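QA checklist item 7 of 12: single-chain prediction sanity check.
[x] sequence parsed
[x] length recorded as 397
[x] structure emitted
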Amino acid sequence: MEGTPGNDAAADPPRGAGPHPAPAPPTAPPAAPPVAPPTAPPATLPPALATGLLDRHLAGLDGLRAVAAFLVVFVHAGFVRSGGLGVLVFFVLSGFLITWLLLKEHDRTDRVSIPRFYARRALRIFPAFQAYWVLVLLLSLARAKPIDWPQAAASFFYVNNYFQAISGDPDTWLSHTWSLGVEEQFYLLWPMLFVGLSKDLRRMARFLVATILVVWAWRAIGRFGLGIWEGWAYEAFDMRADHLAIGCLLAVALRAGLVPRLWAALCAWPATALVTIALIAGSAWLGYRYDEPYRDSVGFIADPLLTAVLIVQAIAFRSSPVLGWMNLRPVRYLGTISYSIYLYQQLVVWSAMKLLADLPLPVQVAGVTAAVVVPAALSYRFVERPFLRIKARYEVG
């Protein structure tokens, strides 16, 4: 699941001055070009939003990651019903953050290094997942639990979304890796498209709008005209790409200063964030009440748009009581480890609920939270962080 993206660019390493320059160490990444000062956001943006976008670490977004991760945890524990809202929030966040950082890299270096981008993604995503994947297989073998080897192979190669869209979900400790497949397929495609469109942000925005509309039409025709089953609409990249593209479009629109009146209205008063949250909650309830017909029609259009609005408001209202809690250190930490939370909740939630089933609800919530956070914190500390230090070598600025 979406981790914290990085941004950097590449250039050829400088040559030595003598006739026999010493070669660069074989394990070192190419030296990064000089970093120009970051480009200021357009003056048409509301001041609170514009200054928030100047931060290297965008305020509120770790908090949104934490909320998304625990929506997944609490849905699987049976505490809430959200119709997949947590994963949807991750998708929109991924599209926004990846595109925002690609835009910053292009501003600073006038290019985007595709090899460096893929190196950063690999170092961010692969280690924690592969450690989890190996652990799942070892635990399954130790407990004599049958392993669905086709699903295990599909998840390892990040195509479990299409495996399950075609064959159904076998309900295993790897079932949730379908969403990692959606994100990886986005990572493969979007940077190359971005490079081709990067000379004209308005053209990029038009392309993204067209992509979103095409996916909306395809999902409606596929589900309600051709009778494609709901598992395909939920897990296949071709029917979820609009959620990532909405995040991409948000980043481009903010960077290019498009629709300034919209941002002014959304950021006029912190209480407007409460309206956004209420609309998201209402849509989630309708998804629970009317299930797939609502989700695959209205919900999958309204929810990512509302999530994009909430991203803007989380940045603009980062100091307000309404959304400022998302920047509290414990909340930010949970957002930092949200990738591992997402991975390990599939393994521990069911067992934790079995042990806590006869206890009061607050004890169940606390117990499940602890059961998920402990392995996630260990994964972050001993698996993710060492590779994040290597990833930092490929970043710009």
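[x] summary fact logged: The CA atoms of residues 270 and 291 lie 32 Å apart.
[ ] second reviewer sign-off
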